[in-house]
Amino acid sequence: MTDDLVRRAQAGDQTAFRDLYHQLAGRVYALCLRLTGDAGAAEERTQDVFVRAWSKLRSFRGESAFSSWLHRLAVNVVMNERRTTFRREQRVAPVAAPETLERGRGEPAVGVSIDLERAIAALPEGAREVFVLYDIEGYSHAEIADLTGIAEGTSKAQLFRARRLLRENLDR
Amino acid sequence: MNERELREAVGRLPKSIEPPRDLWPDIAARLSTRRPRWYWLPLAAAAAVAAVVVTRNFSGAPSSGSWPVSVLAGRPLVGSARLAASGALRVGEWVETDDSSRALIAVGSIGRVEVKPGTRIRLLEARPDAHRLALARGAIDAKVDAPPRLFFVETPAGTAIDLGCAYTLETDSLGNGRLHVTAGYVEFTWRGRRSVVPLGAIADTRAGMGPGTPYVEDAPEPLRRALAKFDFESGGAGAAGAALASARAEDAVSLWHLLQRVDPSQRGAVYDRLAALVPPPPGVTRPGALALEPATLDAYWSSIRRILFRRVILRGVRDIDPRTGTTVK
């Protein structure tokens, strides 16, 4: 079913591509939501992913499942956007103090009722990305290093930090 | 929380989370201006052929990247400007009406769409072989005179596909709505779930669930309630049974759809009720219907649609037997 839709989409059939979107939007949105920690940004990145997928469909040769290919593309789209935004912010704003990074973005009102999704969203950006990619999505540290442009050792350190922060937040 | 408990909690996280709204209309708008590069050559050839064919079939010029839009009341917003009289709606642009404004969009050369007050609608595609709007909220009256499947309206609950018709389509801010067909018939689809709504029939729609089972304008209230429960509240066999009990011969459109939606174990009961109300035409057999053979379903559908057509068209002129479509003496 999916293979047929992919073939038709590769031939330019937008209706088939729409059906693929409906099949896979939930997976892509979940990934974007967890990587960005922001619902609005996740919607934008999800759209970007499918627009990019449409323009790159020809490069999909069926060597992996289409969902895996799309998943990888989604990670790349989110990471590219993050790098672009980071460079933009670097030009206009000073780097935040280390202690603010450690507290995490958004600083939600954590308490006993905080759930795991919210706790993940509240992680510092780098720690959150590594945690999502390693613990939820199953990427290796080498793959994460390749995807995000950080060293493998940094990936391991970020994972350790993410898990510690999550345990602390979920214990409160 | 220790390491193991965290791992277990992570393992329970859902792999999929549906976006809070349907993102496809926005994606489609971006795709329509950005085709895969390799696609241009065959597309150019196909488009040239399609343009010739469509131009021959319709006297008007093929639609381009914009459609004319004019004011019927008030000052609707088109793109980023308030429209005073008339203008152009370009691909990707929205028309937005407030409580007191209305607009009329020309659907290329094949039809028109009246945008009712309180509506937000976007032009996604304006090509001779694909005329596509996205209705985010509000209501439209559409009238199209063209071969089937040239005009589409995307909504959060699915896509209305014109099969040669006139209809009213509504969508509320939650993406739930209603399709009411006043001429011809319309197909409404969502992820493989499909309703064919003929003249004089209505289908309710729900975001994330698609179209409900169509029912005729004068369907009894208990039938409407049972169908709503079956379609949108996981009513199952109980709701289907209630629908069968309250259905009349006039409600064959609903039973024909229900036959394809109920659990296979319940198909026999639906078929028997339908056959008792509207005798099957020649060639339609019980085994064929229970196996959902396309030819059988099509034959029964043609008969049901013809009867409904005569009932609606001749309403107030002469009485039509809802079992056969013949004039009551």
Q: What labels describe this entry?
A:
A: 172 residues, mainly alpha, 75% helix, B: 329 residues, alpha+beta, 16-stranded mixed β-sheet, 16 strands, 33% helix, 31% strand
Characterise the protein shown here.
Helices cover 75% and strands 0% of the residues of chain A. Chain A has helices spanning 2-10, 14-36, 39-56, 66-92, 98-103, 116-121, 125-136, 141-148, 152-171. Chain B has nine helices and 16 strands. Chain B is globular. Chain B is of the alpha+beta class and 329 residues long. Chain B has a 16-stranded mixed β-sheet that branches. In chain B, helix 6 (252-261) packs antiparallel against helix 7 (264-277). Classes of the chains: A mainly alpha (172), B alpha+beta (329). Chain A binds chain B through residues 10, 12, 14, 17-19, 21-22, 25-27, 29-30, 33, 39, 42-43, 46-47, 50-51, 54-55, 57-58, 116-117, 135-136, 163, 166-167, 170-171, and chain B through 1-3, 6-7, 9-10, 13-21, 23-24, 26-28, 30-31, 34-39, 42-43, 191.
Task: Describe the protein's topology.
The complex is a heterodimer of chains A (172) and B (329).
Chain A: H1 2-10, H2 14-36, H3 39-56, H4 66-92, H5 98-103, H6 116-121, H7 125-136, H8 141-148, H9 152-171
Helix pairs in contact in A: 1-2, 2-3, 2-4, 2-7, 3-4, 7-9, 8-9
Chain B: H1 3-11, H2 24-31, H3 40-57, E1 66-73, E2 77-78, E3 81-82, E4 86-90, E5 94-96, E6 102-107, E7 111-115, E8 120-127, E9 130-144, E10 151-155, E11 158-171, E12 177-190, E13 193-198, E14 201-206, E15 210-211, E16 215-216, H4 221-232, H5 236-246, H6 252-261, H7 264-277, H8 286-290, H9 294-313
Helix pairs in contact in B: 4-5, 5-7, 6-7
Number of strands of chain B: 16
Poorly predicted regions of chain A: 88-114
Instruction: Bin the strand percentage of chain A.
Output: under 5%
**Which chains share the greatest interface?**
A-B, 34 and 32 residues
Query: Level of helix content of chain B?
Result: 25-40%
Q: Give the number of helices of chain B.
A: 9
Tally the beta strands of chain A.
Answer: 0
Computed CA radius of gyration of chain B, to the nearest angstrom? 23 Å
Level of helix content of chain A? Answer: over 70%
Strand content of chain B: 25-35%
Provide a count of the helices of chain A: 9
Task: Calculate the terminal CA-CA distance of chain A, rounded to whole Å.
Answer: 46 Å
Major sheet details of chain B? 16 strands, mixed
Secondary structure category of chain A: mainly alpha
